[in-house]
Specification:
mainly alpha, Arc Repressor Mutant, subunit A, globular, three-stranded antiparallel β-sheet
């Protein structure tokens, strides 16, 4: 948007469209998780997925991957710990830094929850050509990288 712009068209804004899509998907995932009796939220699912895929992460790594501050990550992890899905361990080199791992219960739940989430995403992407989805992924990743690169300027 340049200095002469007098109106901002949300329908043309990549940020607005991405936000609206994200909110709709997360709302649907939360509904499906609840309907299936899973006691977690989409926010917790995202954290669990990163932990699951990496075989464990530090809380700081989760902050960076989820673009959340330490307080929010601590809250998400406390909820997952109460549910028995994760355990936190003192770091090997720095006892203050906690490493987060799935518990056996967390590992056991992940494939079924992943299938549920994949079903929601399949519904969201129904009728969209794979090439278009690939372009969309690349554009969103590049836009995120652009913002990450200019951090602190």
């Amino acid at each position: 948007m340049d200095a002469t712009t007098t109106h901002y068209m949300l329908k043309d804004s990549l940020g607005h469209l991405a936000t609206q899509f994200s909110k709709a998907v997360l709302r649907r995932i939360n509904q499906e998780l609840q309907a299936a009796g899973h006691p977690i939220t989409s926010e917790q699912w995202t954290a669990l997925t990163h932990i699951w895929n990496q075989g464990g992460l530090t809380q700081q790594e989760l902050c960076e991957r989820l673009i959340k501050d330490k307080t929010n990550i601590a809250r998400v992890l406390a909820g997952l710990e109460r549910l028995g899905f994760i355990r936190r361990e003192a770091g090997a080199s720095d006892r203050r830094e906690k490493t987060v791992h799935l518990t056996p219960a967390g590992s056991e739940a992940m494939p079924g929850i992943a299938a549920l989430v994949q079903g929601v995403l399949a519904t969201a992407c129904a009728g969209i050509d794979e090439h278009e989805l690939s372009v969309c992924r690349r554009v969103l990743l590049r836009a995120r990288q652009n913002l990450k690169a200019c951090r602190g300027k």
